[in-house]
Amino acid sequence: MRIQDIRKMFPALSQTVYGKPLVYFDNAATAQRPESVVRQMESLALGTNANIHRAVHKLAADATEEYESTREVVREYINAGSRKEIIFTSGTTGSINLVAFSFGEVFVGEGDEIIVTEEEHHSNIVPWQMLCQRKGATLKVLGVDDEGHLKVNELENLITDRTKLVAVTHISNVLGIINPVKEIVNICHSKGCPVLVDGAQGIVHENVDVQDLDCDFYAFSGHKIYAATGTGILYGKEKWLERMVPYQGGGEMIQNVSFSGTTYAPLPGKFEAGTQNINAVPTLKAAIDFLKLLKDSELQGEIKHVEEYLEKSFASLRVTMGIKTFGVPRGTESKAPIYSFVVEGAHHEDLALILDKMGIAVRSGQMCAEPLMDRFGVTGMLRVSLAPYNTIEEVEYFVKALEKAVKMLV
Amino acid sequence: MNTLEEAKKAVIEDFSMYDEWLDKYEYLIELGKNLEPYPEENKTDDKLIKGCQSRVWLDSKLEDGKVFFKADSDAIITKGIISLLISVYSGRTPEEIAGDDFGFIGEIGLKENLSPTRANGLVSMIEKIKDLATESISKDDVLTAEDAKELAPLYDNVVMALKQVYDPEIPVNIYDLGLIYELIINKKHEAFIKMTFTAPTCPMADEVLAEVKANVSDVPGITACEVELTFEPPWDQSMLSDEARLELGLDDISK
After folding, report:
1. Quick check: pTM over 0.95?
2. In whole angstroms, how far apart are CA A51 and each of A44, A55, A56, A58?
């Protein structure tokens, strides 16, 4: 299989913007959707549309089957021990907020601590800040070094017996460095502290095995792995989920309701109150089928070639144009194809604006990681993030366009 | 100096010379690079415009009844856009600026062709320019005791004129209803009125505003009248005058 074969599966990629072929390099924000995913959504909306779990009729049974079989597919894909550990949410943000509330309500009190890192996305900072405010707890921060690596060696000393949870990203949405999550989990567990992993980018670029990682929670979104928007997953170890209180009350999350008291439904229903995103969740099946296609070795070789070409281009642009890249891998360490950079003398937004007029979609600004921008002393960056449908020709065109844009500005 | 309309026309003509948006950007970049330097010490938070992805500072001063703007941005295209706005609006009277609809921005296609965040920024820039102009309208008047003495009867007469305008639904005039939030008469005898309605959905709003403007303009000695509508703060019954309370039978008997 070749990149060109993958491209053909994505109708959105053949469009032009301002009369120029679209070059979509903003994949870390959201990926494009393959036709198979869109067709599945269409068939659910036009055909298998009924509310799940409740009614006895045929359509409801089919819709329930679509939804619940997705849970099994996801469980298998990340190798969770049980379907009870897979909770459907609205996205990574929804998953993290669920834990911040439901775990926080039971396990976090006044004077306790939560640890996050300096490279977290706002959605893995703010829910914890809100929890700390609610409970009178303290938020502590693990730093990032100049190359963009987490200061993992400082973690052990940062954890105290008041630390109730460590929340860390698998791959920073800015730096692209793959964090040593397994090592982090080991350190935390040795001190009796559970770990939540923000897998929004990690699920895209890594083969995630939650049992192997041994993390307590793993949160990710569907839309970054080619499924419909508004879909998300929270993996949580059963031992935690069982003891956590529900986040929202409503239909489907209950066993018995009376005015003297209500008992909650068993997992995973306890955390899925109300009508779920029934027309979108099953697209995760088509999306995961697509992810499996990507494992083809010929394709992986070609993708690697595109990434290396871009990395080499950045290396020479560093010399010719004074660009500065963030998140430098050490030695043979590999990095996810997420490249953030600044150009001396040219504002990130000006560059993004000019590139846009040349048909190239990149991200500019703070990228929802203001503390990290402050860490590196910049007001924003430019980010190129690749997907398996991006070609070497697109990278070549991007490099030329960037050179032209810089020439216009500097 | 050219008129406001001429300045706008010149910008529209300049822009129409370029077909390609990249060329238009180059033109904006050039404008940005040539913008008069902005004093570093004035890059303070109160001069910073909110709503821009890049940072924009805008400052103004009033000289001989005209507003002069200075600005800066860390992004050059944004700086070009603000430079273009300044070239059109700097050196105009506050009234000219406050009364302008900034429609020429649409004519050169600037707003439509900017990224959404930058378009928001542009809207914020325009609002800031208008705010600064409006502020200088009131700042314009440093009144001496004599000025105040001269203006006092005018205030009385304008209030009389306002009391002739009635709310379409309540048999009380708009002044006693408390709908007038602000009345300023400057040395040039121009009246500026900020007013509200009892509800944002008043179907007769345009008619009432026109009536206010006409009545106040007709007051002998008043040279012009500007009426601005606001719903901040929203009107409530506590704003009624004692006369109005009596009229509506709202007086608390137990008081």
Report:
1. no
2. 11, 8, 10, 11
